[in-house]
Amino acid sequence: MGNICEHQFEAPDNKEKDYSMTEYDLYARLRMSIRKNLKTGDFEIFRLDSKSVVFKGDLFSVVQEANRLEGAENTSIKCGSLCPKKSN
What we know:
By secondary structure, this protein is an alpha+beta fold. It has one domain. Helix content is 14%, strand content 26%. The strands form 2 sheets. The protein has a 4-stranded antiparallel beta sheet, with helices on one face. The chain has a two-stranded parallel ribbon with strand order 1-6. β2 (24-25) and β3 (32-36) form a beta hairpin. It starts with a strand and ends in an 11-residue tail after the last strand. The mean pLDDT is 93.
């Protein structure tokens, strides 16, 4: 099971400033990933090949949809040791 920390999606990508640098990949066979649209504040599931958005919403809704697409409860929302907001 993987954890997604919402705070890791705050830094902008160097090439696409409207999107987070951090992406969370779903199963490889799906060829999809989760990113944050920094302009709208929405989290998105998008296709890696075309960059088209297939689902967007708050992080909870996006994680629920990711788990549905993968067919299992693989992902949860939780700050981990790399969380930039977590105190040391």
